[in-house]
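Run log, item B.
One chain of 289 residues. Sequence copied directly from the ordering sheet:
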Amino acid sequence: MKRWVIVAALLVVIMAVAAPLFSWWERHRIVETIKFFPLDREAVFTEAKTTLVLGAKKERERYTLRWSTTSTLNRRAYLRQDISLLFADGRLIDVLSKWETDVDTIRMEKTVMTHDSRFFQAITFHHGELHKGEVITSSQTMSSTYLYVIDSPYYPLTSFRRPKTDDEREWQRVLNKAANEFLRHKADELLDYFSLSKDDYYALYLPELVAYTEQPLPGLSTAKTQTMIGRLWEGLYKSYVLGIKKEDGSILSPIGSTMPLILIQKDYRRILILLEAKNDEKVMLIQVP
């Protein structure tokens, strides 16, 4: 009898220890996973927005940029998750990520301190995982924004999306030229390093992917395009946002890396993601749709 009492007591202790460990593992699994499931035709986003707003004043020669996102699904989801990436002049400078269970809405906000005249671009992937019994589906959309910030001793601190004056048009030209030339130079280096021909692929930078929220990729249906985008973000989150995973198992921070160049093979057999890490290491991520 005493043996059974001891065994029962041990089981109680083991369960007490295992329960929080399982709870931690489950939370950890959710945080580090965006999983694409077949898209639910009935679950749609009624709102999806990303914004960038310049702060009014400078502090210690630096200004603030308020970066926020919001998204609402037309129903509660088993898991809602949003990921937003902020680029400046072609390099990743910050990441926002948030998940919640049994909600329809996700809101994120962060204030970024920075300096100098810069061209900012932000893209957000809005995702929902839905469970109906044993059937799991998903819903997704994207939003993006951009902002030009002028921080010069010869010009008052200001920001704009669309230029309204000759000075703003000139600043837009200068900042666009600098970002485009930087990205073009890095793309040429990456293509040469990995011995790739750009002619074999549909090429676009990550923020440009938003254009395919509503329209299909060349030669694909809208449904297949959305499936490809969902799987692409699943791979990006796992192998880029959470850290750039190298072949030797080590992980590089994505912060400071170049804006991902997405190469979609024209026969859609594979997708390549090319970038250069902050330490100048060249990286190619390969995904099979």
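Observations after the first pass:
- DSSP finds three helices and twelve strands in the chain.
- Confidence is low (pLDDT under 50) at residues 2-30.
Flagged for discussion on Thursday.
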